[in-house]
Amino acid sequence: MRESLNAELDRWTREGLIEPSQADRIRAFEAARVTGVSWPVRLALVFGAVMVAAGVLLFVSAHWDSLSPAARFAIVLATLAALHLAAAAPGVVDAPSVRTVLHAIGTIALGGAIFLTGQIFNLNERWSTGIFLWAAGAAIGWLLIDDEPQFALTAILVPAWLFSEWVIISDRGGWSGLRPLPVGLFLLAVAYLTADDRVIAARRVTVLRWIGAIALLPCGVFLWEAAHQPAFGTVGDAPLSPAWLALSEELWVEVTVPRRGPPRPLRLGVKKDGTLTPLDLR
């Protein structure tokens, strides 16, 4: 609870404006309501997570070549188990932020563990299968833990697996088979940014909107560049897709980033012949 509010409650009690029992109820209410952590704590947790992950990678890489395949695989399994067991330790359970960070590091490390296992045993599998296993692990973590980092990883890895499968399937057609990829990425970013909190839980909408806000610009640039690349297919002499030539429309997204809370789309519309037609986000 804020110290300023605590001081005000003491002053109001001394002046006889409220009863001590009322002040105690207000303190209990505020203590139960405030569950987040301040941004310096969040920054410290993120920095600590990066340092722990970097330390593990440096230690393992320094001795990796001298280890047998069995020892390498044992290190991979031990690292994953240690991260999740540390998050479930009695002292960490009482610190939700630290527990969340450790579980998130464990899920991120799962991706490296999957691909390292394939390298250790020379498994000749499609690389998209590794992303699928990583996405499945993130989804299981989200279902078991139900926190924002696991949901964010699931929201990123599941589309990544679908796109990786598309890349492999369309590889025979060359670059022209990849034309739907930039369109799909851009539309996914727009869908995440315009997530509706009347359909999805508010805390999950916050995660989706942040992912969409971060991915919107690079996906838009990728889409623009792909539309002008002959390698993605041409229509006559113009390196544009048929849809771009036929419609000659632009998708406009107006976004605001408030001081508190997730980014919010203000308006979504289609611009054609200089006229912007708003789209109903409902």
Describe the structure.
The longest helix is centred in the C-terminal third of the chain and has 26 residues, at 202-227. Helices cover 66% and strands 7% of the residues. Strands 1-2-3 form a 3-stranded antiparallel beta sheet, with no helix packed on it. Strand 2 and strand 3 form a beta hairpin. The protein has 282 residues and is mainly alpha-helical. Among the domains are: 1-34, no CATH class; 179-282, no CATH class. The protein starts with a helix and ends with a strand. It has helices at residues 3-14, 20-33, 39-63, 69-87, 90-93, 96-120, 127-145, 148-169, 180-193, 202-227, 242-247, and strands spanning 250-256, 264-272, 275-279. The model is unreliable at 234-247 (pLDDT under 50).
User: Count the strands?
Assistant: 3
Provide the helix percentage: 55-70%
Total number of helices: 11
| Share of β-strand residues | 5-15%
Write the element-wise H/E pattern from the N-terminal end onward.
HHHHHHHHHHHEEE
Instruction: Determine Rg (CA atoms, Å).
Output: 25 Å
Class from secondary-structure proportions: mainly alpha
Q: How would the global form be characterised?
A: flat
Major sheet characteristics: 3 strands, antiparallel
The stretches of 5 or more residues where confidence is low (pLDDT under 50) are 234-247
Instruction: Determine the mean pLDDT.
Output: 79
* End-to-end gap: 37 Å
**Spatial arrangement of strands, main beta sheet:** 1-2-3
